[in-house]
Amino acid sequence: MVQTKATIALKEKTKGLSKTVINIIRTTQRNNIELTAIADNKANVLLSLNAFILAALIPYTFTNMEAIFENFLIIPLSFAAITCAITIYLTAQVLRPSDFDKRQKVDPTDVQPSPFFFGNFYHMTASEYYASLEEGLSDENLVKGHLAQDLYFIGQRLGVKMSLIRTAFNVFIVGVFVTLISTVLVLSFS
Asked: Residue 101's pLDDT is what?
């Protein structure tokens, strides 16, 4: 098989990143994206469950106000409502899109913003983007820097999501137990 000058030049150009490095980067990106999807799914479930509980509590409370105040059930119902509201707020923070403009301002490296992430170029015109992409692909070290930058910011956002989800689950679990305990105490003393 005869190799042309273009084929040889292409092989030399792509020699910089080994297949192993490329596979590690792809695997890491895929894992981060899958973990992000898992966090979003957990947030959706928790958000839906708490919205359903809150939606059921409100009509029940308004139609039975006299019995609720008479039996001091307002205390456990308040705990339940507060738990649901805080959990809904935390899960909504997980699902809320990132502020991409803020991301560019806090980049700790000297590498220009990566042309591979849409948050960096959604304000650009097509010609600005093509110029950024061409410059970004011109240097092997710049490509490595962009890949590292993208992995870093995906990981940072994933860390925030997982932390918020954990806090939301903790609030929900504690809130359910406090609600149950306060219900038992209120009913046993009334």
From this structure: 64
> How far is it, in rounded angstroms, from Cα 190 to Cα 73?
10
pLDDT along the chain (190 residues), means of 10: 49 62 83 91 96 93 90 93 97 86 57 77 83 82 81 88 96 97 91
24 domain residue, yes or no: yes
pLDDT given at position 164: 96
Asked, for residue 11, whether it belongs to a domain, the answer is no
Helices of type H across the chain: 5-14, 19-63, 65-70, 74-95, 100-105, 118-121, 126-137, 140-189
- How many domains, in total, are found in the chain? 1
**In this predicted structure, what is the pLDDT of residue 121?**
79
In 3D space, the residue among 70, 81, 152 whose CA is nearest the CA of residue 117 turns out to be: 152
pLDDT at 176 (0 to 100): 96
3-state secondary structure of 108: coil
Q: Tell me the whole-structure pTM to 2 decimals.
A: 0.77
Question: Counting Cβ atoms within 10 Å, is residue 184 exposed (0-12), middle (13-18) or buried (19+)?
Answer: exposed
Encode burial over 158-178: b for 16+ CB neighbours within 10 A, e otherwise: beebbebbebbbebbeebbeb
Buried b (16+ CB within 10 A) or exposed e, 50-75: beebbeeeeeebeeeeeebeeebbeb
Q: Can you give the residue range of the structural domain that contains 138?
A: 20-189
Q: Examine residue 100 and state whether it is found in any structural domain, yes or no.
A: yes
Residue 12 lies in a domain: no
